[in-house]
Amino acid sequence: MNASRRGLLIVYTGSGKGKTTAALGLALRAAGHALRVAVLQFVKARRSGEHEALARLGDLVSIRTVGTGFVVGRPSPEAQAAASEGLALARQLLADGRTDMLVLDELLSALGAGLIAEADVMALIDARPSHVHLVLTGRDAPAAILQRADLVTEMRCLKHPFDDGLAAQPGIEF
Prior knowledge:
Blueprint lengths: L8 E6 L4 H14 L4 E5 L7 H7 L5 E5 L11 H19 L5 E5 L1 H6 L5 H10 L5 E5 L5 H6 L2 E5 L19
Parallel strand pairs: 1-5, 1-6, 2-3, 2-4, 4-5
Helix pairs in contact: 3-5
């Protein structure tokens, strides 16, 4: 590790599109510098374009879906168990010393849906080794996480093709 490098806590939040895209852009940039990146996707259940693209980067970037899909209403026990297992995997990835950047995609959405507790997320942040970049995405980031973050970007939707009835587009939404 470069002695001048310090791991950052980065948050992409808000109601607009682009949170995952921004986080995956960081993962790509980190891989370009030979940093080892792990991506865990909470509340997403299907394999998407990013899975296919990142698989081509070999051992530098791994991606894994740890959710059961988006939660509407009361979360199911299966969704809560999947999120808890994802959080446990995140703790393991931070502890094993082989990850330079950990992207927890839609973790904040899992938090907002009641799948995981804010205290558990704060404990994960506290457990992060000083050299590891931790990237959190999702809507409605709590104030405590925003306060701890080194970099926060809020995505705000000004216009979206969904508003005109256009279906999700491969390569854009998934």
